[in-house]
TrEMBL record:
This is Adenosine deaminase-like protein. One of its GO terms (molecular function) is adenosine deaminase activity. Keywords: Hydrolase, Metal-binding, Nucleotide metabolism, Zinc. GO terms for biological process: adenosine catabolic process; inosine biosynthetic process; nucleotide metabolic process.
């Protein structure tokens, strides 16, 4: 555990609204003059619940984080906590929200996150943070277009601090196929894509999106739980073949998947399947607050389950750098950090 904590890591799949810590929630309650215990109750999934119940929790969270101040404080605390966990590079994602009651606009929401990232940079925290603008599939294609416009505008105005879009939200709502033109448009503008796909067995939309986007988009897959041939059986080989051929990295969130009941236990998690094929698969937290895990926990779990020693872990951490959305300069810097760490440890 201690080695996994010290190990320099990258976190590529973290939703802002589910990445709070209990400590932060308690502080926020005190700050707002609310009884702490009532406030924090049930805000962390301690036992496995169907995916739907997770989504009910997200709605509750959105009632909490709805002012500019709350978003700013949450973003700063999430960045600091990841830095304390020795995450050296973080791609943080969130759905821009319009909340008339607090005067929040989608633009202000993302600008507030940008301000928090810049203030953390000024403080000299040892972590590089980039942002992704989330598209919630429940809100439909028109809102998705607004999110892409916003991401594009911010990519320009922040010189790349915002570097892509995420596609998430309840997979049981709508059809990802409808969003393909939006994804292609985003990629054309230079935005990178992280798409929640095959989180549940949705073969048709997953195949459609992969076929349409694999050639022209820089992309990663969020979860991808029901992607591989082993699970799908005959007739579903196309998806795996595309993923392998285009080396599309998969963001693997072990604890989140177990608590959402889409995977039984660490031993059956698809991480192992892809890793043993030497396909890029990156351990991530998804929501370290909602799922009560740190990135260190995720590394420890996998190390224990699959017998990774220190060398394996270091080699693995190094391999995750290839899948970040930032360019070569940042990649080289991260590799150097890991190399120096490895030397010190040996
Ligand atoms: P936010 O975007 O508000 O910062 O983070 C919460 C939102 O992220 C949720 O409302 C949902 O749209 C998305 N999200 C968080 N976790 C998951 C997940 O495990 N699966 C999917 N599909 N979406 C998620």
């Amino acid at each position: 555990d201690d080695f996994c904590h010290r190990l320099p890591k990258v976190e590529l799949h973290a939703h802002l609204n589910t990445s709070y810590s209990m400590k932060f929630l308690r502080e926020l309650a005190r700050h707002n003059g609310i009884a702490e215990e009532d406030f924090v109750q049930d805000l962390c999934l301690k036992e496995a619940k169907p995916l739907d119940e997770g989504f009910a929790l997200f709605v509750r969270l959105h009632q909490i984080f709805k002012t500019e101040e709350a978003i700013y404080r949450l973003t700063c605390s999430v960045i600091k906590e990841f830095a304390e966990d020795n995450v050296k590079y973080l791609e943080l994602r969130s759905t821009p929200k319009m909340i008339p009651e607090t005067g929040m606009t989608r633009d202000l929401y993302m600008q507030t996150m940008v301000r928090a990232v810049k203030d953390c940079e000024k403080e000299g925290l040892d972590i590089t943070v980039r942002l992704l603008v989330s598209i919630d599939r429940r809100h439909g294609v028109e809102v998705a277009r607004i999110a892409v416009d916003l991401a594009d505008k911010l990519m320009q105005s922040t010189q790349g601090l915002v570097l892509g879009v995420d596609f998430s939200g309840d997979p049981k709502v709508g059809d990802a196929t409808d969003f393909i033109p939006v994804f292609l448009d985003a990629a054309k503008r230079g935005l990178k894509l992280s798409l929640h796909l095959a989180e549940i067995p949705l073969y048709e939309e997953t195949k459609n999106v992969l076929q349409a986007c694999c050639r022209s988009c820089t992309m990663r897959i969020g979860h991808g739980t029901f992607l591989h041939r082993y699970d799908l059986g005959k007739g579903h080989e196309e998806m795996e073949d595309i993923v392998l051929q285009w080396k599309i990295p998969i963001e693997a969130c072990v604890t989140s998947n177990i608590l959402s009941k889409t995977v039984d236990c660490p031993g059956t998690h698809h991480f192992h399947y892809w890793h043993s094929k030497q396909h890029p698969v990156i351990l991530c937290t998804d929501g370290k607050g909602a799922f009560g895990c740190s990135l260190t926990d995720e590394y420890s779990k996998v190390a224990k389950e699959f017998g990774f020693g220190k060398r394996d872990l270091l080699a693995y951490a190094l391999s995750t750098v290839d899948s970040i959305f930032e360019g070569d300069q940042v990649k080289q810097r991260l590799r150097e950090t890991m190399r120096v760490f490895g030397q010190k440890e040996s």
